């Protein structure tokens, strides 16, 4: 069976690949949206921290003999701790300044982190084995579904939707939103707003580390893996609406699928289709699809 001249198995395989890419876009853009929406900081170091998560998982498995599941938890925690150190020592002094200062600081952090890993491991990728439990594939009849790619989609959606629920539907989320809009009022109720801000930044970058561990068995672990992705992720955030949690999730998944379809019908345009969509959206709705117009 063909769909517009393309065999159904080929179409479904590209849609799956697009959904996997969309899962990474969704999780990375979610972390950016959390940090910008709650802290008003454009975190350009997100791609480097995504790479750091993958490298820490690889190092734990290679040098310490830890398994994938341990590093899936431990690597994001370590990246989150690193983010907390950045926030407490550098970033918190820039909150009242123009966005440009935070952008420049996090860009500098990106260069430093990438430089450290490049000095030790070069630019060639490091192999990362798929965990034994998720090895192999499942025959669905119309296509063969790699088990690990299915796990990536499920894990990403679970984390993204869980994060959205906590921020939008719980008392903790209401404290976070109120603390960013009127910190003095929230502090009057006994809430430690600076600690809350620090933990929010740590959680946002931990999401990047988690995405890095998920991506490691699919792509080779390389110091440049984050820089190749972060520009696309920023485009996803802009399309969804800066600071919109659900906008980042839905837009990331949708753009991954659109990218997969473009790869089927017009392969030459797959690398730029996200930016074409961004231009169209900004022309029609400058605040993004889910952003609030000022």
TrEMBL record:
Any single Gene Ontology cellular-component annotation: plasma membrane
Source taxon at top rank: Bacteria
Main location: membrane
Keywords: Amino-acid transport, Cell membrane, Membrane, Transmembrane, Transmembrane helix, Transport
Membrane topology: Multi-pass membrane protein
Subcellular location: Cell membrane
Gene Ontology molecular function terms on file: transmembrane transporter activity
Keyword Transmembrane helix listed: yes
InterPro entries listed in its UniProt record: ABC_transp_permease, BCAA_transport_permease
GO biological process: amino acid transport
Ranges annotated as spanning the membrane: 15-39, 69-87, 99-121, 148-167, 188-219, 231-258, 265-284
Family according to the record: Belongs to the binding-protein-dependent transport system permease family. LivHM subfamily.
Protein name stated in the entry: Branched-chain amino acid ABC transporter permease
């Amino acid at each position: 069976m063909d769909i517009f001249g393309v065999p159904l198995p080929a179409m479904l395989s590209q849609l799956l690949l697009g959904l996997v890419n969309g899962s990474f876009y969704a999780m990375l853009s979610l972390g950016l949206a959390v940090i910008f929406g709650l802290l008003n900081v454009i975190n350009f170091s997100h791609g480097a921290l995504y790479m750091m998560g993958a490298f820490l998982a690889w190092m734990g498995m290679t040098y310490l003999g830890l398994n994938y599941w341990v590093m899936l938890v431990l690597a994001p925690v370590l990246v989150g701790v690193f983010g907390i150190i950045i926030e407490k020592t550098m970033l918190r002094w820039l909150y009242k300044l123009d966005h440009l200062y935070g952008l420049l600081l996090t860009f500098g952090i990106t260069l430093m982190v990438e430089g450290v890993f490049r000095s030790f491991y070069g630019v060639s990728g490091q192999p990362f084995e798929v965990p034994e439990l998720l090895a192999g594939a499942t025959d669905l009849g119309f296509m063969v579904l790699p088990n690990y790619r299915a796990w990536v989609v499920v894990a990403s959606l679970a984390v993204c939707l869980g994060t959205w629920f906590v921020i939008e539907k719980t008392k903790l989320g209401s404290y976070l939103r109120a603390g960013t809009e009127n910190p003095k009022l929230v502090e009057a109720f006994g809430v430690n707003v600076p600690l809350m801000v620090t933990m929010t930044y740590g959680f946002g970058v931990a999401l990047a580390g988690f995405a890095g561990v998920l991506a490691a068995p699919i792509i080779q672990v390389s110091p440049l893996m984050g820089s190749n992705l972060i520009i696309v992720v920023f485009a996803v955030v802009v399309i969804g609406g800066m600071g919109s949690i659900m906008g980042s999730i839905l837009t990331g998944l949708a753009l991954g699928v659109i990218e997969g379809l473009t790869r089927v019908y017009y392969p030459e345009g797959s690398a730029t289709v996200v930016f074409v969509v961004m231009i169209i959206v900004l022309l029609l709705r400058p605040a993004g699809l889910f952003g609030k117009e000022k």
